[in-house]
Amino acid sequence: MRKACLVLLSVLVLGGIVFAAPAKVIKIGLSFSDFATERWPVEDALMTKLAAAQGAQVVSQVANHDAKLQNDQIENMALQGVDVIIIIAEDGAAAATAVDEAVKSGVKCIAYDRLIKSPNISAYISFDNTEVGRAEARGVVKVVDHGKFMLLGGSPTDNNAVLVRNGQMEVLKPYIDSGKIKIVADQWVDNWDPPTATKIMENALTAQNNNIDAVVASNDGTALGALQAMKAQGLAGKVPISGQDATAAGCNSIVMGEQTVTVYKDVRLLSPMAIDMAIKLAKGQPIEGLKMYKLSDITLDKNQKGQVPCKFLPVVQVDKNNVYDVIVKSGFQSYDDVYRDVPDSMKPPKP
After folding, report:
1. What is the DSSP letter of 68?
2. According to CATH, what is the number of the domain 130-264+317-346?
3. What is the pLDDT of residues 14-53, one digit of tens each?
């Protein structure tokens, strides 16, 4: 079995001369579910850069929404001798098999932003996904707190989508129980795919004769997909809709008066955390700031056994009132991207 900790220097004494062999280079694997999601290519480049700055090599692969392919790629990374694999799972349950095998061979695994349902992961780092759902629902209810609502969930294979929905329902349930809100459509979007969200929204609008008062969508991609269908019916900007990720397109839609709210998760904090953890795990050093959670609690599934060490970062609700201060001024998205196609007379000054 390959040792997880590294022998930094081997020393050879020959003829009174001490020769120090170079330190073993740390190898980090990056396993991405897809690159269709706007944030993943950005974080791939960022983590690769951060790893190189610390002298580590990176092997990066993309599964293109194929859970079996991702498992094969994880297995291949382990065979290539990586020390740690950072995994953005396509399917958190399916990836557990590959993780368990990798760990048996001495490779540490970090679940990045999406939970992998295995107690053998060394860390699960993400954002407070339940609060994401609360913020989305609060943002919509602030505009419309009664009538016919549609729920547009994320990918059913992504545990984050379950936690987000749990947060949404914490806010919506009192309104539903009182009869103020009626859920007339509830769909999950495979792979968080915007075109799929468009089709789902088209069908919902047809079934309801366009009589939908609000949409609680779970990320910017699905929200923007739904908005395509809403635009065709003249409803964009009239029916509030939520999202998350504070993507450039999502923020632009907010300032254009179409998307109502997004939830800002500063991935610039998550990527450095992942690389720092990977380096420490490769060196056999302890990781601080993790808290143990039962898998049954973070999956909302009592059949899940074991615990995983986790760290969850805070999130911020963003709408037209604070998008400039929170997103643009912080440099998370560029001024030009956020205010694309906005008339100059309606733009704030460049920061």
Report:
1. H
2. 3.40.50.2300
3. 445 555 556 689 999 999 999 988 889 999 999 999 999 9
